[in-house]
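Reviewers asked in the last cycle whether our approach scales beyond single polypeptides. To address this, we selected a multi-component target totalling 776 residues and predicted its structure end to end. The input consisted of the following lines:
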Amino acid sequence: MELWFTERHTPNVKFSIRVDRQLYSGNSEFQRIDVFSSKEFGRFLTLDGYMMLTEKDEFIYHEMITHVPMAVHPRPKNILVIGAGDGGVVRELTRYPSVETIDLVEIDELVVEVSKKYLPTTACRLDDERVNICYEDGVKYIRRCEDKYDVIIVDSTDPFGPGEGLFTKEFYGSCFKALRADGIMVNQHESPFYDEDAAAMQRSHKRIVESFPISRVYQAHIPTYPSGHWLFGFASKKYHPVRDYNAAKWSMLGLHTRYYNPQLHAGAFALPNYVEEMLRDVE
Amino acid sequence: MEMTERQEKAPIYEALQRLRRMRVVPFDVPGHKRGRGNAELTEFLGEKCMSADVNSMKPLDNLCHPVSVIREAEELAAEAFGAANAFFMVGGTTSAVQSMIMYACRSGDKIIMPRNVHRSAINALILTGAVPVYVDPDVNSTLGIALGMSPEQVEQAIKDNPGAAAIMVNNPTYYGICSDLRRITELAHSHGMLVLVDEAHGTHFYFGDGFPVTAMAAGADCASVSMHKSGGSLTQSSFLLMGKNVNADYMRQVINLTQTTSASYLLLSSLDISRKRLALHGREIFSETVRMAEYARSEINSIGGYYAYSSELINGGSIYDFDRSKLSVYTLPVGLAGIEVYDLLRDEYDIQIEFGDIGNILAYISVGDRERDIERLISALAEIKRRFGRSSGDMLGHEYITPIVAEAPRTAFYSQKEQLPLSETAGRVCTEFVMCYPPGIPILAPGELITPEIIEYIRYAKEKGCQMTGTEDINIENINVMKNGGQHGALVY
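The resulting structure, written as C-alpha cells, was:
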C-alpha cells in the first residue's frame, strides 16, 4: 500500500510526499488542519491541503523570517508575530535575551493546539513567559496598535483563505502605524516562479512599497514550497537591511543557526534578474 | 399544506429542471441554442447558465399572461410577502415603481410624494402626465441627508390637495430611514388615496426579525421590492406586491404596456429560488446580516471621526424607524467627502462600496459577506483617516436642496428647449434630470427651477468626483432648459 500527500503547485504541476501515516485531521471554524508523518520530511502540517511546514525544512523558513529583522534592529524588545500558530517563529525569537515581549496573534486556536500536540519541534517555546497569545484576526488586532512594536513578523498563509487580509494595503498601513519610528516589518512574500504566485508576490510588494519608506525583498530555498524559491519582504521605517546591518554584533550573540549566517544575510538580498524586474515593475 | 411546506416549492425553477431533462430540441429563440452557438459567451457564463436562458413555452408559462408555473410562483411569492398578489418583474424595481404610479394616476392627477424619490418615480410622472406634490422631507442638518415624511406633513399635503390620487412613500430610504407607514396609510385611505411604497431597499423587512414594518403589513396598496438587493436574486429582478384593494389583472395590463415580452428565465428562476430561500431561512440570514452591520458600526465608531449611525437617530417623526442592516457612515468629520472615501476605498484598498455622496458612504452588508472582509473595510477606513484625513473646515455639508416646481415634469420634458452652459441657467426651468448615481435621487428634475444654490451644489459634487448623470450633455457642462417663457420672472428666490 502506498499513501501519498499531493499538493497542486499549479494546475499542471503536482508535488507529492509519501505519507507514513496521518496523525491528525480536523476542521476548525476557519480551515481544515492535517498533520502527517513521512519518511523523507518527518512530520508535516497542512492547512486546507496546502503545505505549511515539514520538520525537515522548517528551519530554513523560520530562521530566515526571524533572524534577518532581528539582526538589523539594534534593540528589538517588543515583537509582534501574526499567524505562525505552529510556534516556529516564536522558537527563534525566544533565543534573543533582549526580547521582552512576544505577542502572537493567530486567528485559529486549533492550529496552536494541534501544533503543541503533534509538532513539538516548532511549538516547543510557546510556553515561554514572554509569549502572549491572542486568538484574533490579525487585521483587527493591528488596527488598535500604535507606536508599540520594534519588529513585526507576518507569517501568513497564502493570499487566499483566512490569511488573505494579511496581504492588503490596509493591513500593511496598520503595521506601519503599529511600529515605532525605527520599526521593521518582515512578511512571507510568496514565490516569484509560477505565474499565479508571482502575481500575488508583485501585488503584495506594490502595497508594501506604498506603505513603507524602505522596502526590500530577500530569498531562501525551501524545498517543500512551490518551486522551492521563496521570498520574504523586509519593510522598514529607518534601517536598511544590508547597510545598517551589524554582522559582528549578531555573531557576538553566539546563536547557533543551520541556515542563516551573516554572509548569507547580505547575499539573500541579491536577487535574480527576473525577480528584480518583477519588483521594479511595481515599484 | 403548511406554509413552510408550500414555500419549499419553486415552480419556475422546477419547470426549468424538467425541461432540461426532457432534452427538447430547440427550434425557437434564443438563437444561441442553449449556448452551443456562442462558445465564448458559454465559456464565460457557463453551460448551465446558458441552457437556462430559454424562451416562454407551454411548460414554462408566459410572464405577460401567466396561467401555470409563473402564476403558481407568483402566488407563493404573494404568500411569502403577505400580499394579496405579487408579480415577478424583469425590468428592475424601476419598472415596478413606474407600473404602480401608472396604475394609480392618469394625466393631470396629483400624486403626493417626497422629493427624495428615485428617478424612476419622476420618470413615471413624465410617462403618465401626473403632477407631483412634493412633501419636503426633513433634513438632518448634521448628516445632510433627507429623512422620511412625518404624518403631519402628509396630513397637510392631503388637506392642500384633497383630490390627489395617491401618496408615494420612499421606505426605507437608501440610508435606512423609515417613515410611519401605518399612520400615513391610515391618513391616505381615509381620504380615498392609494398608498404606493418604493420599498426597493426593504426586501429583508419581510423575512427578518426586528425590522421596521413592511408596506404590506402596514396596509399599503402597492410596494416595489428589489429582490436583487437584499434578497439575493439576480440584478434587474424585482417584485411588485399588491394589497387586497388593487385590481391585479388591470395592474398586469399596465405592466404589459412597457414590459418586455421576452422575460428572462434566468431572472425569473432567480426570483423563484430566492423567494424560497428567504421564506425558509430569512430569519437566520438577516439576523446574521444585522449582527455584522452592528459589529462594523461599533468598530467604525471607535476609530473616531466617522459616524456610523443607527437607531439612535429615531425621533418619532421624520425618522420613525431605522433599518439596522444598513451600514451608512458620515465622513465629513475626518475632512473627507463621502465620495472621496468611496474613491479611496476602491483605488487604494480594492474595496467597492455601494455609494458615496457629499457627506456619507453606504457599504452594503449582506449574508454574502465574510467576517474577514468586514475587518478589511474597517481597517481601510482607519487607514484612510490616518493617511488622508484633514480638518473638516471647508466641507460643504448639505445634501438636500428644496426644489421649486415650476412645471409638471411631463410638460417640461416635452417642451421646446435650449441648451445652456451650467453657469447661465439660474432662473430657468430645467427639462431634464441632474443627479449623482448612485443613489439616483435627482438634484434637479424636469420642471424645476434652477437656482444659484443648485448650480453651486452641482459644481461642488462634480469637483469632489461624484458620478453625475441624467443630462443630454454627457459631460454635464450644459443643461437643457425651457425656451421662451421658461424664464419665471415672477418667482423670487
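Residues 195-211 of chain A form the longest helix (17 residues). We regard this as preliminary and will revisit it once experimental data from Aim 1 are available.
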